[in-house]
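We modelled the chain as a single entity of 571 amino acids. Its sequence is:
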Amino acid sequence: MSSTQLWTLIFVVLSFSFYIWIAYRSRVSDTAGFYVAGGGIPAPANGAAIAADWMSAASFISMAGLIAFSQNGYAGSVYLMGWTGGYVLLATLLAPYLRKFGKYTVPDFVGDRYSETARLISVVCALVISFVYVAGQMGGVGIVFQRFLGVDKTLGVIIGMVIVFFYAVLGGMKGITWTQVAQYTVLIIAFIIPVVAISASMTGMPIPNIAFGEVLQELDGLQRDLGIAAYTEAFTQASMMNMLLITAALMFGTAGLPHVIVRFYTAKSVRAARYSALWALFFISLLYTMAPVLGAMSKLNVLNQINGAAVDSTPNWFNTWRDVGLITVDDLNGNGAIDLQGGYGPGTELVINNDIVVLAAPEIAGLPAPIIGLVAAGGLAAALSTASGLLLVISSSVANDIYYKKINPQASESKQLTVGRIAMVFAIIVAGYLGINPPGFVAEVVALAFGLAAASFFPILFLGIFWKKATAMGAAAGMAVGLGVTLLYQIWTLPAFLGNDPIAGIPATGIGTIGMILNLLTILIVSQFTPPPTPLMQQVIEEVRYPGRSEVLVAHAEGTLSDEELHGDSH
């Protein structure tokens, strides 16, 4: 066992043991604890859990690589703008109002706001989004185990499944939340230490964001020397329209993610939900302001070390990643050296998988083995934290929105918990399969999930809060149209599926914006010709937007107001 593998094993064992211990101490025996942690999580802790839940393997493992090795860093900036901008939308337009509505899940809100038909369609949307998203997380787990512990990718994914099983099934949302606080701590330390160390060694400046300008200038010059557009030059890889479509899909998708929205139900109050959002933005910014710096520095190191190097005399880090198939070299001109003149990527002499850039950064910079092991543990923390949140969405959608609401409304809390845990076990198995056979690299898969969330959930949530005449039939039709168009287009264009050419050049990661617009238009049009919500429901929507409690919701919760009175014929 190499020193890198030893340190990785030490950090992984320590962190995993800590996560399982937290889950055991946080185990729950009621549905409120399992689904929303009893609504008692303090705002700073909730903010850290939201940050860990939301950033995922895509942010930790893949985003810096996407920005760096898309040849042009400007094109990769859509992920920074979309994912952070979307969080502002979520925090200001949706989170506090949904918290005041007081439901366990997004389908729960949709069912109470619109109709049971809309609830069932939203369950399908939540399951599709969550399974697509979790595929990226489990794929990231497999990559870390494969590279740093020499474990087969399949076995690595299985190990990750077992760990998630323990703390997600035992503790539900309560266990997941406190585990995610610990995972955020691990992942942010594991991200910041290498960035600071690399910045200090490359530029003499230990504050990466200050050194960023110097690195960008050098990288621009190096790319021009190789006959490639400057790293900071705009619109060389993606048109302005596609930049807009992808950014919007990521932004509105962030605001519609079911596993993030449910986090605001764990806050103690509407006020605490707002502060949770503020804390989460702060915690997210620590990683997001440094990811572009790490990507640029890693790329500069790679180009300097690899361009012109003999094929059979490359650095050890390069050989190790090539051995696991995440770096590909093809001596196209037969000169025995890696020639990057004209670029890199598919069809050239060098192809580097986006998912290795952060994980390989300490090795590329020559940092010691303990830091490499810490980064590996951080990557696992990022992947598993999001995977657990997604699995809870799947579990709660099946147990609460299908079993309890539709199949057995008389089920006891213990019966609901049993069904929820069984659903989570099956979800973990499916997630493991998708992690072993993902339809793309981590951030690409995650971006597809964001597009699905934008096309299905954001319009019905936004209009459900701010337009009291949005109807049940309009919401159901809008979700079906938005999800259907987006999912079919992704299947049509993705190489892992049909692999057809994009229509009008629109990428699969940008179609979510078109789906969202179609969803909005469908709701607006259908709502003009279908029965409006009851006067009581319109009163609820009015009350939810203002401070203070909703008298109608209180009466409904206490049982003095029936479903039929609140919803009319829609229920």
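As a brief sanity check on the tokenised model: The chain has a mean pLDDT of 82. The beta strands are 327-329, 350-352.
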